[in-house]
């Protein structure tokens, strides 16, 4: 079973920065993509950023130019560097991984989420 462990959330002032980490553990045959999603109170979960094998990335328009997604393949870890944070970035951030598990079955797994709160 693949598990994702997230860390790095917290409380920060507007304009500040945070770095989220998400480490995948368990037996993984292949990871096709990892990404970050977020859900604010009363709103739908939305895509923040994704990164696929080979390093290609995409971002939500609302975070483009402020957030950077990256990964360390050796550690099976994805990061989200969040700069110039705004109060509207406040949400629970969830890590996601898609790929093939050790049993050669498709994996689509989510982390528990980490709270990011940006004060004005």
How would you sum up this structure, described in words?
- The protein is an all-beta fold and 120 residues long.
- Helix content is 0%, strand content 61%.
- The chain has no helices and eleven strands.
- The strands form two sheets. Strands 2, 4, 5, 6, 9, 10 and 11 form a seven-stranded mixed β-sheet that branches. Strands 1-3-8-7 form a four-stranded antiparallel β-sheet, with no helix packed on it.
- β5 and β6 (57-59) form a beta hairpin.
- The protein is elongated and about 45 Å long.
Instruction: Give the biggest sheet.
Output: 7 strands, mixed
- The helix content, as a percent range, equals under 10%
Backbone shape: elongated
Mean pLDDT: 94
Summarize the structure.
The protein has no helices and 11 strands. It has strands at 3-7, 10-13, 18-25, 28-39, 46-52, 57-59, 67-72, 77-82, 91-101, 106-110, 114-119.
